[in-house]
Structure to design on (150 residues):
């Protein structure tokens, strides 16, 4: 299973907001510059994140985006699901009900393997919050407090 740039860039941008949580709205332009991501692409990603209730937008000259909840309440798995869709290495084990049903599902030996892979990936992504990422970044302690790479 490989994530697209939607998941990668979206997580980087959300991490950027988490690092600055409590500082007020952050412009997408500043996030784009720091994370070396196209501002236009971030606009598309943030539309999905806003619709899912993970970020809030603030209009005006001092506007931008903020996390809709505290960093400790936002799990990496939520972000990935919003931007990439259900976590599943194969369609037959999709997290979404009714998706990926297969005529062989009840007797497929490989399906149990794919379920374990799905559950392992989901377990890791759902066990890490944005706050955990910020704490890990502080542990790494680069010279510039905002220059962490993910």
């Amino acid at each position: 299973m490989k994530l697209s740039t939607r998941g990668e860039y979206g997580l980087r941008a959300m991490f950027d907001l988490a690092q600055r949580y409590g500082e007020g709205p952050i412009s997408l332009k500043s996030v784009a510059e720091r994370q070396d991501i196209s501002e236009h692409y971030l606009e598309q990603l943030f539309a999905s994140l806003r619709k899912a209730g993970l970020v809030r937008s603030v209009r005006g000259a001092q506007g931008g985006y903020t996390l809709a909840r505290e960093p400790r309440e936002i799990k990496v798995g939520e972000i990935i699901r919003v931007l990439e869709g259900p976590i599943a290495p194969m369609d037959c084990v999709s997290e979404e009900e009714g998706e990926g049903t297969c005529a062989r599902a009840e007797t497929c030996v490989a399906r149990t393997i794919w379920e374990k892979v799905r559950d392992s990936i989901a377990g890791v992504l759902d066990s890490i919050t944005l706050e955990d990422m910020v704490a890990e970044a502080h542990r790494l302690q680069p010279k510039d407090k905002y220059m962490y790479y993910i």
